[in-house]
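ok trying this again, last paste got cut off
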Amino acid sequence: MTKFIIILLTAVFINNYVLTRFLGICPFLGVSKKLGQATGMSLAVIFVMLMATAATWPIQTYLLNPNGLGYLQTIVFILVIAALVQFVEIVLKRYIPSLHKALGVYLPLITTNCAVLGVTILNIDEGYTFAEAMVNSLGSGLGFFLAMVMFSGVRSCLEGADIPKSFKGLPITLIAASITSLSFLGFSGVIENLFA
């Protein structure tokens, strides 16, 4: 049980896919302006990460590896993720049209969100069991959620700030993102020492 807690907390705080591994930057910068959109996108990403891991881990373990087809990993994983995102888009369009409209073009971009693909591939590369891979995916999704919500708050503060003209727009957004990312460096080593 302790190992699962370590994997979960490490994925959320230390190996945060957005703030320390720099995966999933497109939705991080594009959908973090409003808290509602950031939350909706994050929940969709958590769902897709969990479902993608639940589908790709067995495919890799029981189909690709035994048949010597490991080299097809990236292509197969992308196809699985694309199918899952289409499913999420259909469900949102049918049951939560306001969120579907608010996410707009960013929802199909989950298909190309390298954080989702990164989670599925790194679960295999780390040698996680199925349960460990699912916990890591949940932690990675929660880390994505945390980063999106935190940065949404930062961006809302920036809207009312007196920013020099040369820094307005994308420059101040990137500076704020880098400072937010630096704040997560303080977690390095903390989780392992708690359970040592």
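PB: full thing came through this time. The mean pLDDT is 88.
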